[in-house]
Amino acid sequence: MAEVHLLVSPRGGRGRAAAAAPIVRRVIEQAGHTPVDISGGSAQESADAARAAVEAGAERLIAVGGDGAVHLAVQGVAGTDAALGIVPAGTGNDFARALGLFGLSVEEAAARALGPSRPVDAIGTDRQSWVTFNVTGGFSVDVNVRADRLRFPRGPSRYTVATLLTMPGLRHRHLVVTVDGQRTEYRSAMFAVASTPTFGGGMVVCPDADPTDGLLDVAVLGPASRTTMLRLLPRAYKGNHVGHRQVHMLRGRSVTIEGEPMDLVGDGETIGSTPITLEAAPGVLKVAADPQGP
């Protein structure tokens, strides 16, 4: 009988993660394993617990929650042989969405999290930490902050409401983006560096991003008026914003973001401010996301 370590987000999905945890434990036990909860009282404690568990020999760590919970688990499993399982029970669940795990029942996701794993890319930073799939700054961070404060609505639509509420305060910043040594300057409302297509609860900001191609996709928006932003917003949910003259798409293995200081969010979590250098980390994660699993 093997131990399976659990990292449960206490606030994920406004309580959905906590409600899912007993079901996940039952599935683990029915599979003949022993669940071990390593959830910490804070984000830092959970990340430290993930690292410690893997260093002590944990072979599988299941994150129960949203992208934030996955982000914490990745700090322990990235670059190791430990498998990462995901039970999406948060608000955005964008990493799970990219791997075909979004929309599963808790029981189905827990069973998948115990199954075979496959290599998936992550994003290395110059901060001695990992980002699972997305780093963003500018208007998108302002929206994320507003969304975290909203009590209603629940689910991905919270980001849409937060976007509309944040729009009156839209501002542009001087941004310098260097991709594989090629330097470009922008007047930007926001940017995103991603290894998967979506963030913010399903916005297809980088539609060609692939978490297995060893590359990072970059989207820079601006300069754009409030009217243009409002027109692009619904298009972004289908990726139809690409091709607009104020949407700039780049791709490479190494990305440095400089210019006017701005706060940064990685996987929905605050990770500091610019400047920052990001590197594609091919296959550094072993994610239990094989549809042929149990």
Description:
The structure is a single chain. It contains eight helices and 16 strands. The longest helix is centred in the N-terminal third of the chain and has 15 residues, at 16-30. It is α+β, with helices and mostly antiparallel strands and 294 residues long. The strands form two sheets. Strands 1, 2, 3, 4, 5, 6, 8, 9, 13 and 16 form a ten-stranded mixed beta sheet that branches. Strands 12-11-10-7-14-15 form a six-stranded antiparallel beta sheet.
- Percent strand equals 25-35%
Mean pLDDT: 92
- The structure class reads alpha+beta
Number of helices: 8
The low-confidence runs, each spanning 5 or more residues with pLDDT under 50, are: none
Number of strands: 16
Helix content: 25-40%
Query: What is the 3D form?
Result: globular
Determine the N-to-C terminus distance.
Answer: 17 Å
